[in-house]
Write a structure and sequence with these properties.
Helix content is 42%, strand content 20%. By secondary structure, it is of the alpha+beta class. β4 and β5 form a beta hairpin. The longest helix has 15 residues. The chain has 16 helices and eight strands.
């Protein structure tokens, strides 16, 4: 069984952080830092552990933010342009998950030394990611922060370029939302334009996720940008666009569908059979069907399925799941078979009773059938 993510913030990590901070600032009270950061750590979750380490840093570093930043930057690992996914700390300096509490501390106190805080986020992101910490600066002074962040999209370091996109995402998971960008994403669009052909997949993936964020509140903006970008698009950019449009494709947005070559489907659903009309919670919904093309030409089809989950008030709410994408010639057919487990997940509460499933082809639902979900043995 994999190690819980929260254990990334361990007593060993705190000890190493303390060693590096003491190394660059002999007056740093390492014993006090380790005690404050480690006390009760085992009962805390990931973000709570990061917050406790941040509070300990704040208590043990100089009260002057610029001096505190100098110490933290001096403690960082000298290598600043390497793949960081599996890189931990070593005897050269701090990097990896230990950077996040430092970035948050700088972000929370950014108004005390805004320019120094901006520079700190730029340097820290090279050793982990400042995508959470930078958001404090955007919320504190959007114009000033974005003037710098937009320039970062041209930086030689790909971690900094990624931060320009990732840190300005309107709905970044685990992070504070950016309400102004949810209402109007235009401040970040020049950044995405600069990065659409970035040579690094890590950066392009962030751009795609950023556009997908925008699509949740400003669907036409994302669809329009992707339609423009598809012209003379390289294979890398086409991949970016497909990922960016994933939510809109599920929603059947017409411009998104057209951009990816999915026209109005000319199909016939000859059968949709629910193999499990009664599903015991913890088991699986199973269904099958046959889709036949009625077009006189080849057509691309994006086939999804929708489960209409029962809510507490008895109404249902749809959830779209990807099934397959394919090309059918005239008169050709494809058999659909799916087994969809229904088991406990943290993002959904299930309610017993009638539910429904239907297919969706190029954004158009077809063939809805009911099934019963039983919660008790």
């Amino acid at each position: 069984m994999p190690e819980p993510l929260k254990n990334l913030y361990s007593p060993a990590l705190i000890e190493k952080m303390g060693n590096h901070l003491k190394r660059v600032s002999p007056g740093f009270d390492k014993a006090m830092f380790v005690d404050k950061a480690s006390t009760g750590l085992d009962v805390l979750e990931l973000k709570e552990r990061a917050a406790q380490i941040r509070i300990a840093l704040d208590a043990c570093l100089p009260s002057d933010l610029e001096r505190a930043i100098e110490i933290m930057l001096a403690s960082l690992h000298p290598e600043d342009n390497v793949e960081l996914s599996d890189v931990g700390m070593d005897d050269k300096g701090i990097r990896g998950w230990a950077v996040m509490p430092m970035s948050d501390l700088v972000g929370l106190r950014c108004n005390e030394a805004f320019d120094a805080a901006l520079n700190a986020q730029k340097e820290m992101t090279k050793r982990f990611s400042s995508e959470f910490g930078i958001r404090h600066l955007i919320l504190a002074d959007q114009d000033r922060a974005m003037a710098a962040i937009t320039k970062w999209a041209d930086d030689d370091n790909y971690h900094v370029r990624r931060l320009a996109s990732e840190g300005t995402r309107p709905r970044l998971p685990w992070a504070m939302k950016l309400p102004a960008f949810i209402a109007d994403p235009s401040p970040s669009l020049p950044i995405l334009e600069k990065l659409k052909n970035d040579p690094t997949e890590y950066v392009r993936r962030s751009v795609a996720n950023h556009l997908n964020d925008i699509a949740k509140d400003n669907a036409d903006t994302t669809a329009g940008i992707c339609a423009q970008w598809m012209e003379n698009a390289t294979p890398h950019r086409k991949k970016l666009i497909r990922h960016a449009l994933r939510t809109l494709i599920k929603q059947g947005h017409p411009v998104a569908l057209e951009t990816l070559g999915f026209g109005e489907a000319e199909i016939e659903l000859s059968s949709l059979n629910i193999r499990t009309p009664v599903v015991q919670f913890g088991e699986a919904l199973e269904f099958e069907g046959v889709i036949r093309s009625t077009a006189d030409r080849k057509q691309q089809l994006a086939i999804d399925f929708i489960v209409h989950w029962r809510k507490a008030n008895g109404d249902t709410a749809p959830k779209v799941f990807k099934l397959k994408t394919l090309t059918l010639g005239p008169g050709e057919h494809v058999s659909i078979q799916k087994r969809h487990p229904i088991r406990p997940i943290t993002t959904r509460k299930y309610y017993p009773g009638p539910q429904a499933v239907e297919l969706q082809v190029n954004g158009k639902p077809c063939g809805r059938h009911d099934f019963e979900l039983v919660m008790e043995n």
